[in-house]
Write a structure and sequence with these properties.
Strand content: 15-25%
CATH architecture of the largest domain: Alpha-Beta Barrel
Mean pLDDT: 95
Helix content: 25-40%
Order of helices and strands: EEEEEHHEHEHEHEHEHEHEHHHEHEEE
Number of strands: 16
Shape: globular
CATH topology of the largest domain: TIM Barrel
Radius of gyration: 21 Å
Number of domains: 2
Distance between the termini: 33 Å
Number of helices: 12
Strand order of the largest sheet: 3-2-1-4-13-14-15-16
CATH superfamily of the largest domain: Metal-dependent hydrolases
CATH class of the largest domain: Alpha Beta
Low-confidence stretches: 396-405
Length: 405
């Protein structure tokens, strides 16, 4: 957990050295004195980035590293949900092994903070939760994994789900998830009352998938904003996807963004190519924090995705038509500092005292790193070297001692 990095350029600034002691950044400066017993690494003038942040994925669902899944699912959201439940039952999908495999792949590409939604429903029960909690325990010294208890099949639509969510929060889920209170549950008022009530009872933040589009989505977003304000949940609610911000009239969007900024409600986007997306620059200009994530990676929903947050920043930038270096920096911020703030990550960054989560790439500046997505020359997590050239190193725990049903 001690390390001296020589000749690195933090976010493209002048070259300096960085000293890590006990897993934290202890000093930065030119030509730092060697410390007896502390190993040294030569950066060779490489660009130094903070550990990357994945703010929205689904570790439990992935087929990463498995044989190709032939996707023949129907076009509706409900089709994908039902198909996934059927596939899970038929294959006996191992959410523990797969979540660990994908989390390690993220780590090798420089992601050290990650928020994952975990399916909780009356078919799977809490099996996926136990499996991902085991992965969190295995990687606890290297990666901060936040677990979202997520009702993928709906909350009101499947009686018994609320009780399972309640138990999931007792067992250690960090965040309570929600899904389309009107489009899936059919009753936004009842769904949100139950969701906010559970969050308040456990003192947990909320992260709500909102696929609802246009004015329907805007009305649901208004209802979420109302409850956030009334119940004093300012700064504790994130909206994932939030497609409605991309397809309502500009005046309506401006009014929603003003309320979101005032109530410190954040947005988590994937930069989807198939749906309208929250306009990144407008959100930032309004004071709304925007983080980014991959959503599912190689699962029954989609064949796409890679555990590479520089690639996701590139896709967000492309979807938002970001071309100038300062514009591309907004997409990079969504997978670094803004992502960390949205997820409430502590001790994040490249300052003295921060946890030593560091990524070295061969690039001139942040914009080139996002556009070129170069190989990760070195990845350090909590002061430990965990990857070189994208290949995992021996600092990875091989298995978990956490026992789950």
């Amino acid at each position: 957990m001690d390390l001296l990095l020589r000749d690195v350029r933090p976010l493209g600034a002048a070259a300096l050295d960085l000293l890590v002691r006990a897993g934290r950044i202890a000093a930065l400066g030119p030509r730092l004195a060697a410390v007896p017993g502390v190993p040294q690494e030569q950066g060779g003038g490489a660009l130094l980035l903070p550990g990357l942040v994945e703010a929205h994925t689904h570790l439990d669902k992935t087929n990463w590293g498995l044989p190709w899944y032939r996707n023949e699912v129907g076009p509706r959201l409900e089709d994908r949900i039902a198909n996934e439940r059927r596939w899970r039952a038929e294959t006996g999908h191992d959410a523990g092994a797969q979540s660990l495999r994908l989390a390690r792949a993220f780590l090798a590409q420089g992601t050290t903070r990650l928020r994952t939604h975990v399916d909780i429903d009356t078919d799977a029960g809490l099996r996926h939760l136990h499996a991902v909690l085991a992965t969190r325990e295995t990687l606890r010294e290297l990666m901060e994994i936040q677990v979202v208890a997520f009702p993928q099949s709906g909350l009101l639509a499947r009686p018994g789900t609320a009780e399972l969510l309640d138990e999931a929060l007792k067992l250690g889920a960090d965040v309570l998830g929600g899904l389309d209170p009107q489009a899936i549950d059919g009753d936004a008022v009842a769904s949100l009352d139950l969701l906010f009530g559970l969050a308040a009872r456990h003192g947990k933040p909320l992260d709500i998938h909102l696929h609802e589009s246009g004015e329907e989505g805007a009305r649901t977003l208004d209802a979420i904003l109302d409850r956030t304000e009334t119940l004093g949940m300012q700064g504790r609610v994130a909206i994932s996807h939030c497609f409605c911000l991309g397809d309502v009239a500009p005046a309506r969007r401006a009014a929603l963004l003003e309320r979101m900024a005032r109530l410190r409600m954040s947005v988590i986007t994937t930069g989807s190519a198939s749906r309208p997306v929250p306009p990144l620059q407008e959100c930032v200009a309004a004071g709304v924090l925007v983080a980014a994530g991959n959503d599912g990676i190689r699962d029954t929903w989609t064949p796409y995705g890679r555990p590479d947050m520089l690639e996701r920043a590139m896709l967000v930038g492309l979807r938002n038509n970001l071309r100038r270096d300062d514009e591309i920096a907004l997409a990079f911020d969504a997978v670094t500092h803004a992502g960390a703030r949205v997820c409430g990550c502590a001790d994040y960054g490249l300052e003295v005292g921060c946890r030593a989560d560091l990524v070295l790439v061969q690039a001139q500046n942040v914009a080139e790193a996002v556009v070129a997505r170069p190989a990760r020359k070195l990845v350090v997590a909590g002061g430990r070297i965990v990857a070189r050239g994208g290949a995992q190193q021996a600092a990875h725990p091989a298995s978990t001692n956490y026992t789950y049903p």
